[in-house]
Amino acid sequence: MDAILLQILNGLDKGSAYAMIALGLTLIFGTLGVVNFAHGALFMIGAFCAVTLNRILNLSYTVVDETQKDFLGNPLKVDVPYVKGIFGDAFGNAIIDWSVPLAILFSIPIMLAVGYAMERGLIKHFYKRPHADQILVTFGLAIVMQEIVKYFFGANPIPTPAPDALKGSIDFGVLVGLDVNAVVYPAWRFVYFCFAALVIGGVFAFLQFTTFGMVVRAGMADRETVGLLGINIDRRFTIMFGIAAAVAGLAGVMYAPINSPNYHMGMDFLVLSFVVVVVGGMGSLPGAVAAGFLLGILESFASMNEVKALLPGIDQIIIYLVAIIILLTRPRGLMGRKGVMED
């Protein structure tokens, strides 16, 4: 029971990233009909927003500290971050320590702007082009964005620590009635899952309960009819592209302490996220989320030593194996609309 619960938690952790990226992919495909292979790069940019804010907060100036002496007895020169000089040591340290959560606020306008620029500057010209053209141009855009990040931040992963208060572990087993230390889980990974659930729930609530969201859902079902009602559905879909970019960026921001950001992390998640979208059903938002968590849990169980001893390498192919089975038996995906991908 302990091992099963731990693997479920690991699966929810991985599934959270898959689900958030796949949700954004599905929003773009469902509204604009665009297969966006640059979506993984948006996840990467979000992670580097956390890196950037951390570096900004650590910008410092040099002062002479009379309380510290070198071996000759001379006062030492020390670097003091500007935030400490402005807000004081205690509050300044707290701001630096919580730079990753603060990067959520920092990244939202950046990701909205990046998404808007991508859609207006490039992708809008490929709405009526074949999906193959869309894949080629967005994949090329992803490579360009990758190389820009590599140029400014280098090729090596950049450690981005979680706040000190959330670096430890929580005894999750006690919370569900198990023995002490039976299931100990990293606190930040649990925070990531809760954050993902909050973001996903917020997106669904926005689409379900706001007038803007209802118009978008109507446009996804019948774009021409909504346009005939005098509604500028194209502008709303552009905004949805920005929201999808922001969701991917937020996933990247909070993932930075789990996996140190590097320039190719977007590509690492992109292919898996497309598999998630296909398994869940092209254009199905609930399907993308459900498939993300389901495949995350399956991947987690497949990575157990007992399973790999019986089926070596199964952890590397389990997601693709499930995708093959789904496509052979139910081409539209688990929750896809009838007729989609079934021609």
TrEMBL record:
This is Branched-chain amino acid ABC-type transport system, permease component. The lineage of its organism: Bacteria, Pseudomonadati, Pseudomonadota, Alphaproteobacteria, Rhodobacterales. GO terms for cellular component: plasma membrane. The chain crosses the membrane at residues 15-35, 42-64, 95-114, 190-216, 237-258, 270-297, 309-328. InterPro entries: ABC_transp_permease, BCAA_transport_permease. It is a multi-pass membrane protein. Keywords: Amino-acid transport, Cell membrane, Membrane, Transmembrane, Transmembrane helix, Transport. Pfam families: BPD_transp_2. One of its GO terms (molecular function) is transmembrane transporter activity. It is found in: Cell membrane. One of its GO terms (biological process) is amino acid transport. Belongs to the binding-protein-dependent transport system permease family. LivHM subfamily. Coiled coil: none annotated.
